[in-house]
C-alpha cells in the first residue's frame, strides 16, 4: 500500500533536474579551472552564482511540495 | 554623535552583556520551572499509554517554526513574554502560564479575556471545552476556527534577532574602533579575524559588480552579509543561544529582500528605467517585453527571499529528518547510520551558511550594479 502525496513525486523530479543542472555546472567549472588554473577564483564565483540559480528552482519545488 | 565609547569593551565585558541579556529571560521562568515539570509529568501519566505513531513531518516542522517558548533541555523550557493587542488594549503575560500546553487545554485569563495556545499560536478561548477538553473549535481540515488577537510577542525568533543585533554591534563596533585607534597600523585581536572577511566582501562582491560606485553600497552589503551569516550560524547551534531558525523564517528573508528591492529601484538611473520601458527592440515587441521586464523587477527579490528561506529550512529539516529516523524505526541501531549522516549534513550546513550569505550579498550587489551602471 502506497501512501503519500503526488507532491513528493514532483519534489523528486525537481531534485533530479537540479542535480543534473548543478552537475553540469560543476563539471564545466572544473574543466575551466583545469584549462586555466589562474582564473580559478573567478570561475568559482560564477559557478556558485549559477548553482544558486539552479538550486533556487529545486527549492521552489520543495516549498510547493511542502505547502 | 559618537556613542561608540559605550561599546568600547573588552571581551570580558562582552560576556557580561550576554549574561544580562539572557538573565532577562531567565528571571520569570525560574518561578515556573518546578510547576512546569509537575504539570508535564501529570499529563504524561494521564494520557493512555497507547503507542502514538511518531509523525516525522510534524516533528520537523514544529522544530523549524517560531515559538513562544525556548526549549532548554528535557522538560525545561523558558517561557517568553507574550504581548497581544486586543480590543481591550495591550495584554501581556508569560508564555509559561500555558504550562507547556499546546492543545488549547489551559486557558489564560487576562484583562477579562481568555486565551489558549494551539501549535504555538495564541487564540481566543471558546466559552466551553469540547469533548477532548480543549477550548478551541476545529473545522473539518483540522484548522482552528477561533479568532486570533494581534500577536506582537517577543518570540524565539525575535529574541534571536535581538541577540544577533547585540552580537553584531559588539563585534563590529570593536573592529571599527580598532581601525580608528590604530589608524594605518596592522590589525589586532578580533579585528585581524574580520579584516579578510570585510576585504572579501569589498574585493570579491562589491567592486566586480558595482565598479567605482561600490563605496556607497558597502555598508548595506557588509551588514546583510554578516547579518545572514551570523544568524545562519546561530541557527545551527542546537541549544540555548541558538536554536531559533531566524534566516529560515520567510518574514525575515522577505524584509531583507525588500530592502534590496528598494535600494535597486531608488538607485536605478535613467538607463535602468529605459531598459525596462523602452528596450532597444522593434516597437511591437514591447507588448511582450515590457510586462516581462516589469514582472522581472519583482521576481528578483522574491527569488532572493525564497532562496535563503528554503535553503536554510531545507537544511534544518534534513538534519531533523535524519535524527527522526531513529524514532520512526523505534530502534537504537538506526542511530549508527543516521547520526553520522546528520553530522555530515551539519558539516555541509556550515558551508551552506556561508554560501547563502555570500549568494544573497553578491546577487544584491549584482542587481544594484545593473541599476546604477552607466550607459556604454
UniProtKB/TrEMBL annotation, chain A:
Protein name per the record: ATP synthase subunit c
Stated role: Key component of the F(0) channel; it plays a direct role in translocation across the membrane. A homomeric c-ring of between 10-14 subunits forms the central stalk rotor element with the F(1) delta and epsilon subunits. F(1)F(0) ATP synthase produces ATP from ADP in the presence of a proton or sodium gradient. F-type ATPases consist of two structural domains, F(1) containing the extramembraneous catalytic core and F(0) containing the membrane proton channel, linked together by a central stalk and a peripheral stalk. During catalysis, ATP synthesis in the catalytic domain of F(1) is coupled via a rotary mechanism of the central stalk subunits to proton translocation.
Naturally occurring in which organism (per UniProt): Pedobacter hartonius
Protein family membership: Belongs to the ATPase C chain family.
Keywords: ATP synthesis, Cell membrane, CF(0), Hydrogen ion transport, Ion transport, Lipid-binding, Membrane, Transmembrane, Transmembrane helix, Transport
InterPro entries to which the protein is assigned, alphabetical: ATP_synth_csu_bac/chlpt, ATP_synth_F0_csu, ATP_synth_F0_csu_DDCD_BS, ATP_synth_F0_csu_sf, ATPase_proteolipid_c-like_dom, F/V-ATP_Csub_sf
Record site: Reversibly protonated during proton transport: 55
TM spans (from-to): 6-25, 46-66
Membrane topology per record: Multi-pass membrane protein
UniProtKB/TrEMBL annotation, chain B:
This protein's encoding gene: atpB
Family membership: Belongs to the ATPase A chain family.
Classification via PANTHER family: ATP SYNTHASE SUBUNIT A
Role according to the record: Key component of the proton channel; it plays a direct role in the translocation of protons across the membrane.
Protein name, per record: ATP synthase subunit a
GO molecular function: proton-transporting ATP synthase activity, rotational mechanism
Main localisation: membrane
NCBIfam families documented for this protein: ATP_synt_6_or_A (TIGR01131)
Top-rank taxon: Bacteria
Species, as recorded: Pedobacter westerhofensis
Annotated Gene3D superfamilies: ATP synthase, F0 complex, subunit A
